[in-house]
Amino acid sequence: MSSEPDVVLIGAGIMSSTVGVFLKELEPSFSIAMFETLEDAALESSEAWNNAGTGHAANCEMNYTPERPDGSVDISRALEVNVEFDLSRQFWSYLVKKGAIGDPRSFIHPVPHMSFVHDAGNVAFLRKRYAAMSAHHCYEGMEYSEDRGKIAEWVPLVIEGRAAGEPVAATRIISGTDVDYGALTHHLVHHLVAQPNCSVHYRTRVTGFARAADKRWRVEVQDLASGERRSVTAKFVFIGAGGGALPLLQKSGIPEGHGYAGFPVSGIWLRCDDAAINKRHHAKVYGKASVGSPPMSVPHLDTRVIGGQHSLLFGPYAGFSSKFLKHGSLLDLAESIRPANIEPILAVARDNFDLTEYLIEQVLQSESHRLATLDEYYPKAEAKDWRLQLAGQRVQIIKPDVKRVGLLEFGTELVGASDTSLVALLGASPGASTAAFIAVNVLQKCFAGELAAQAWLPKLKEIIPSYGIDLIDDADFTRKIRTETARVLRVDDVNSPRAPTQAEGRAAAAR
Ligand SMILES: Cc1cc2nc3c(=O)[nH]c(=O)nc-3n(C[C@H](O)[C@H](O)[C@H](O)COP(=O)(O)OP(=O)(O)OC[C@H]3O[C@@H](n4cnc5c(N)ncnc54)[C@H](O)[C@@H]3O)c2cc1C
């Protein structure tokens, strides 16, 4: 490995690997070194069971469609997330067509996305939400029903055993997906390091940074097997270290990172591997969040396809752990506290009492409480069919704010040096689904010169044909790109339904 790579990527998760592949495709002469603490890629949040694997297109997540004070439903955030996912679909399709990813079924599967509610107030909300969404071309093909028979056809487990007379409603869109982000990350890392001058270094922790006289970054690393310390010097550093990004941002010392802090939220799933049950459910069914819960804690009953095996996942049940990474240290939170971020942390504690209450309630949940929540989505569920599965850690962003001193953010944010030589990705939602959108943002923020000089544009448009086109406005282009990416990725398209595979036919018969 060169001690002077052009680019250093920190972390071997979906984010660094996506940014790395984009950079190498656009500038094949780049030398790239990736450093990862653990012994393989995708062992933290990007690992399949550490996240829910939803290809988030804001089809079913009701937290993206709040009700306005006048009672109408605001779908603007949902539309943004929806078209961000189109960038990932185009990027993955490019790699499949190029042969860099063999079989798309190794990481992505068609799984309808549904929202499900019960009780009259929620039904009225979902009806309005459906009317607003289905009128937009981004959500054409969305179905709606308040009819138990119809919903039972879609998801029998959700309806069987439910009290008669209880109002229910659901939306469904067949173009939804389940994504194994762990498998995808492996594809990306393999593709990257198979190319000249690119390398990945496992069991190697980035421990600090210094600025060289020529403004490049000296990145200090430690080999965890030998204990040996060394450094490499790079022109550009991407901190895609997941929960480890905040401490590294702090270590970089860039003023843009001052005042930032992190709030870790852990998660637990219930998991069912019983084939007889799983073949009767083929959807990701999202409900409404409880009061005070963070948006990513919306309960959902999901089909997962991991390593060719079908399972069901329910959750997440949120929890609190002071670790920033699943394999991190209990001291992570304490060690991230700085004089500059104490006031924002205190302001967030003051303004988010609901969240504190919610987390305490979640942490104290017993097995019977957990099953009672599952019952809302699967009334006939039996404890014996389910086991606990520890999910990944998410570190929510606490950022300084002029008005409120500190703000708690549930999205993601790129925080970078003013000279664009280093950028860190903080936060975790909508997450892995929008990795390509985040990579494009990194390009626009840190490689604006290369983009403006047109040198990279033709290639970028080959990777993302919709680059420069607003899919929220351009219905024809959206339809065209969705049909094409559905064909390449072998997922469902509302405009050109795919014939079911034999396995899908058998599963439909079992439902
Ligand atoms: C419970 C849960 C559910 C989720 N559900 C979804 C979902 O349904 N859909 C979706 O799109 N997203 C989801 N997400 C979010 C998604 O998992 C993350 O956004 C995404 O995996 C983050 O990728 P990453 O590469 O930034 O981080 P990670 O995958 O965590 O990778 C970061 C890597 O950096 C390494 N690292 C850290 N510090 C250092 C250091 N100092 N030196 C070297 N290496 C270091 C870590 O070991 C790790 O391997 C979910 C997340 C959670 C926790």
Task: Show unreliable segments.
Answer: none
Structural class: alpha+beta
Estimate the global geometry from the Cα principal axes.
Answer: globular
Radius of gyration: 23 Å
Spell out which ligands are present.
flavin-adenine dinucleotide
> On the 0-100 scale, what is the average pLDDT?
92
What is the helical fraction, as a range of percent?
A: 25-40%
Cα distance spanning the termini: 54 Å
Largest sheet: 10 strands, mixed
Supply the number of helical segments.
Answer: 17
Summarize it:
The chain is an alpha+beta fold and 511 residues long. It has helices spanning 14-26, 76-98, 120-134, 148-154, 156-159, 181-193, 245-252, 275-278, 332-335, 339-351, 353-363, 367-375, 435-446, 448-452, 457-463, 475-489, 502-510, and strands spanning 7-10, 32-35, 108-110, 113-118, 143-145, 168-173, 177-179, 198-201, 204-211, 217-223, 229-234, 236-239, 261-272, 284-286, 300-306, 309-319, 387-390, 394-401, 405-409, 412-416, 422-427.
